[in-house]
Specification:
Length: 474
């Protein structure tokens, strides 16, 4: 019997599309799914696309594994977390030494590292791979962030590079580093995605509630912006989401969708990673917090009752909103890349920021014109903080006054701008040669003898503070 070049288990949104993508690229792919219905649905889709000759469906997991060429490469594309571990346990007795698992879900990087440690002594290779691009990307070319051993990467590279998106002919798939590097980078990609989406939503809020624009007028603005420096997948789909009309009511669909954002974990993981590393990532943190606030709909309604409903127009131009979004994005990407750089130092991954920016230029959810500029900036100096790259200094100088006006208008107009205002505060803190932490150091020393530094006099100095508050008050 002919054997498949590769196996894929998990025919959900991503797995089914990845399998079709693999088949379209000339590889024979064996497929399996826990529930039979998804296999049937998948085969109908494969037939419709004329790809059924390249796919081998197997409901029985053992038969599925046997149908793949040895040494086997098995892609797991199931729900992240426990299902991945369960699937590994099911596969383990069916695999032979030298076979490899390529796990492509949104896994926590430390889980990936544990799975790697668990499988390596058993002679099973393991790659932790971040895939971005949603259903369309998975089908026609996602961005693929690979972590794990170089040897395993070399085995998997031909298929992964072939199915990835291409930017000017270059594959948007790269081996980034050992262990959990691929999944860590994918996590921060998603954190940046959260920031982009939240800042877009905040700007939409200013248009809707502060400028009185309807969904269709907002859609036109996003479409126009997509022709300029903000050109990106998320700006493009925002235009489409805003112009969609609900067929039942004839109203803009966006006006009917409940204002509660879901989240599956990668944004929170990004914020935790940033905090643990001591790298400020206020835009990502703000975006995660904003989703959490959004989910508390009943509390928000009650608070609106207590404080009164905001109303009235704000005085801000669409040009300022466009530039504010650009400035916020620059800050957010600066923070995201700084988190990646710091984690790479800690783990000794040797991550190349230019490579990461390059493989995000096409296929993934955060793809944008802007990333090509960033790839260029990082190629010039791997340790660069984007806010200090001359091209970005020029851009920020041009855009931050607009961000300031938008945040000020939002504050006075009672419009929430959690992410944009966090980005602005970060920028203002970052560029402030003399900050206010001297006072914090004084307070810390006052109550806990934690010490402070005075230039020219040394560190770990102490103030001659009164011993008690009562004494201080005398
Ligand atoms: N959707 C997206 O845009 C993206 C998703 N991802 C990530 O890819 C992964 C898959 O996502 P997606 O395709 O959207 O998910 P779906 O919800 O569409 O599909 C989930 C798949 O996981 C399987 N599954 C769930 N639990 C188990 C289990 N315990 N044992 C075996 N199989 C199980 C399901 O099988 P069954 O049919 O039997 O329920 C199904 O095939 C996730 O990690 C997700 O975070 C990554 C990038 C983008
Ligand atoms: O990885 C993705 C895109 O890159 C997924 O779409 C992910 O599910 C998005 O995260 P969340 O569901 O938390 O919004």
């Amino acid at each position: 019997m002919t054997k498949a070049d590769i196996g894929l288990v998990g025919l959900g949104v991503m797995g089914a599309n990845l399998a079709l993508n693999i088949a379209e690229n000339g590889y024979t792919v064996a497929v399996n799914n826990r529930s039979a219905q998804k296999i049937d649905d998948f085969m109908i889709a494969a037939k419709l696309e004329g790809l059924d000759g390249k796919v081998m469906p197997e409901l029985d997991l053992a038969a599925f594994v046997r149908s793949v060429k040895r040494p086997r490469s098995i892609i797991i594309m199931v729900k992240a977390g426990r299902p991945v571990d369960d699937m590994i346990e099911l596969l383990l007795p069916l695999l032979d030494k030298g076979d490899a698992i390529i796990e492509c879900g949104n896994s926590l990087f430390s889980d990936t590292e544990q799975r790697f440690e668990y499988l390596t002594p058993k002679g099973i290779g393991y790659l932790g791979v971040g895939v971005s691009g949603g259903a369309e990307g998975a089908r026609h070319g996602p961005s693929i962030m690979v972590g794990g051993s170089r040897e395993q990467w070399e085995n998997a590279a031909p298929v992964l590079k072939a199915i990835a998106a291409k930017f000017k002919g270059e594959s948007c798939c790269a081996w980034l580093g050992e262990g959990g590097a691929g999944h860590f980078v994918k996590t921060i990609h998603n954190g940046i995605e959260y920031g982009d989406m939240q800042m877009i939503a905040e700007v939409y809020g200013v248009m809707r509630d502060g400028l009185g624009m309807d969904a269709s007028a907002c859609a036109d603005v996003f479409k126009r912006w997509n022709e300029g420096p903000l050109n990106s997948y998320l700006i493009e789909i925002t235009g489409h989401v805003l112009e969609a009309v609900d067929s039942e009511s004839g109203k803009p669909l966006v006006d009917l969708i409940l204002d509660k954002a879901g989240q599956k974990g990668t944004g929170v993981w990004s914020a935790i990673a940033a905090q643990e590393l001591g790298v400020p990532a206020t835009a990502i943190e703000g975006a995660v917090a904003a989703r959490s606030i959004s989910s508390r709909k009943n509390e928000r309604i009650a608070a609106e009752g207590a404080y009164g409903k905001r109303e009235g127009a704000v005085d801000i131009s669409l040009d300022d909103l466009e530039k504010a979004l650009l400035a916020g994005k620059i800050v957010s990407y600066t923070q995201g890349f700084s988190v990646i750089a710091r984690k790479s130092e800690e783990k000794g991954w040797g991550l190349e920021l230019a490579t990461i920016a390059k493989i995000w230029r096409a296929g993934c959810i955060i793809r944008s014109r802007f990333l090509d500029q960033m790839a260029g900036a990082f190629a010039g100096d791997a340790s660069t903080n984007l806010l200090m790259v001359p091209d970005f200094v020029t851009l920020m100088k041009d855009c931050h006054p607009a961000l300031r006006r938008v945040v000020a208008a939002g504050a006075l107009g009672e419009l929430p701008l959690v992410c944009l205002s966090s980005a602005l505060s970060y920028f203002d803190s970052y560029r402030q040669g003399r900050g206010t932490a001297n006072l914090i150091q004084g307070q810390r020393d006052f109550f806990g003898s934690h010490g402070f530094e005075i230039e020219g006099r040394g560190a770990d100095l102490h103030g001659d503070w009164p011993a008690t508050i009562a004494e201080a008050a005398e």
